[in-house]
Specification:
single chain; mainly alpha
Length: about 260
């Protein structure tokens, strides 16, 4: 019978091994992304695929999150006569937390899994091996453009999601809860600060890097066959989502500590 301590130790070593491999891979991607040479055409193509094509799902998610947030804050505030705080809490929650997190999770499902499937298909069909045979670095030609594109496009998507989410809360509050439109918008603009917006955008940059790195990492390690590529896509989506939530907590704690 297997010793339980052996199972725990094996699992712990496996986790640390995987974290180490991911960290080394991320270091290689970062080094390729921030040193010449850059493939501008590929970066622009990935920006369109990651950013522009993600706008519909991000916009729809944001408007419903903002609407649901406003309804729940109103329901909770009405128990204590604090309905007037709905606009302030909606804009704070979306700009500092929900805008970046929801956008990151949406792109973890759409972008990270897509990158893993694409890279995985190239891995199992030996296209990556052929690329390196021609002395072309897979980190520089395949992974760095996706990494840079995610770093640039995710903050833009989060900024758009913040605006749409706040407007979703405004729609529900004005047309469903009886708020005055002018007062609601004035309270929103008076309460939000540049620090609140900066926090969300900083998180977006980091989430973008996590999404791209996880997709490239799982795709690079994909096993042969359709099952291997599908497993890589699933692992990339789950891994990116877990990392986004974990880093969100760490970053939120850090920002609170430094007063940002």
């Amino acid at each position: 019978m297997t010793n339980p301590l052996q199972l725990i130790g094996r699992a712990t070593l496996g986790v640390f091994t995987e974290v180490g491999r991911l960290a080394v891979f991320a270091g290689h991607v970062g080094a390729a992304a921030f040193t010449p040479r850059w493939y501008s055409a590929e970066i622009l193509r990935q920006m369109v695929r990651i950013g522009f094509y993600s706008l519909p799902v991000v916009g729809l998610s944001a408007v419903f999150i903002g609407a649901a947030l406003a309804l729940n804050i109103y329901e909770g505030g009405s128990r204590y006569g604090a309905e007037q705080f709905v606009p302030s809490i909606v804009v704070l929650g979306i700009s500092r937390e929900l805008g970046a997190v929801i956008t990151g999770l949406m792109l973890a499902g759409r972008v990270s899994a897509g990158i893993a499937a694409e890279i995985g298909a190239m891995r199992v069909t030996e296209q990556i091996d052929a690329l390196e045979t021609l002395s072309a670095s897979r980190y520089r030609y395949l992974y760095a453009p996706r990494f840079l594109a995610a770093l640039v496009t995710l903050p833009a998507l989060v900024a758009i999601a913040n605006i749409i989410g706040v407007m979703g809360g405004w729609l529900v509050s004005v047309y469903g809860l009886g708020f005055d439109s002018t007062v609601y918008l004035r309270n929103t603009l008076d309460f939000v600060t540049s620090n609140d917006i900066a926090v969300g955008l900083i998180k977006a940059v980091i989430f973008g890097g996590l999404i791209a790195v996880m997709g490239c990492y799982q795709g690079d390690r994909s096993q042969a066959g359709a099952t291997g590529v599908g497993r890589a896509a699933t692992l990339s989506m789950v891994g990116a989502a877990v990392l986004i939530l974990a880093f969100n907590y760490v970053l939120s704690t850090l920002f609170v500590e430094i007063g940002l």
